[in-house]
Amino acid sequence: MLMTKMSINLWFFVRSTRGSGKSWKQAIRLGSAGVTTVFVLVLTSCINIYILLSMKSSPEDILEQIRQIQQMERGKLCPMRDGRYYNHQTWQSGRNVVQYVPADQAPRLHEALANYQRYLTLTQAYAELIIQRTRQQRAKEFPKKQRPKR
Questions:
Q1: In whole angstroms, how far apart are CA 19 and each of 9, 54, 94?
Q2: Which residues contact 5 (CB under 8 A, 6 or more apart)?
Q3: What is the pTM of this model?
Q4: Is 96 helix (H, G, I), strand (E, B) or coil?
Q5: Where are the alpha helices (H) located in 1-150, listed in sequence order?
Q6: Angle between the N-to-C axes of helices 106-141 and 59-67, in degrees from 0 to 180, rounded to the nearest 10
Q7: What pLDDT score does 57 carry?
Q8: Is the distance from CB of 74 to CB of 91 less than 8 angstroms?
Q9: Domain total for the chain?
Q10: Is 62 contained in some domain?
């Protein structure tokens, strides 16, 4: 689906205000930065899945890559103004939880956040491969009936 700038802004407005307690004015102020972030995340995820599927990986290869991930963390990491701390935000039990992380611990946390994104990409690619395999098996077992031409 091709989304226009208007529809992206509307989508971001709805997503950012739903259940957040923010007013529509706050959501509009965040609109331009948020739209860019959402677009980049979606585009990156699609590219990663395409690369994984184009490499002709087997589901077993993908599961092995998932097993190699040893540390993961959900959320977002943002630098604070003074530069000594980072703000780590994540959702737990339906609430936004904020932790302040010293700058020397930020690289490890950033790596754990990247590992979680890689995990999500790998599981999406695994699901796509299994779905393709299932559809191929179903097509072999139950071929489409050919209709006679009139």
A1: 18, 39, 10
A2: 35
A3: 0.60
A4: strand
A5: 5-17, 24-54, 59-67, 106-141
A6: 160
A7: 78
A8: yes
A9: 1
A10: yes
146 falls within a domain: no
Give the residue-averaged pLDDT of 22-28: 43
pLDDT exceeds cutoff 90 at 110 = yes
Q: Which domain holds residue 35?
A: 5-141
Q: What percent of the chain has pLDDT over 90?
A: 51
HSE-up (13 A, CA, CB side) for residue 65: 18
Q: What is the mean pLDDT of residues 112-119?
A: 96
Confidence bin at 148 (pLDDT 50/70/90): confident
Distance from C-alpha of 125 to C-alpha of 49, rounded to nearest angstrom? 6
148 inside domain: no
Residue 63, amino acid: L
CA neighbor of 75 nearest in space, from 55, 57, 89: 89
Name residue, tokens 């009936």: 145
pLDDT digits (tens, 9 = 90+) for 48-101: 666 655 666 789 999 999 999 999 999 999 999 988 999 999 999 999 999 999
The reply to whether 150 falls in a domain is no
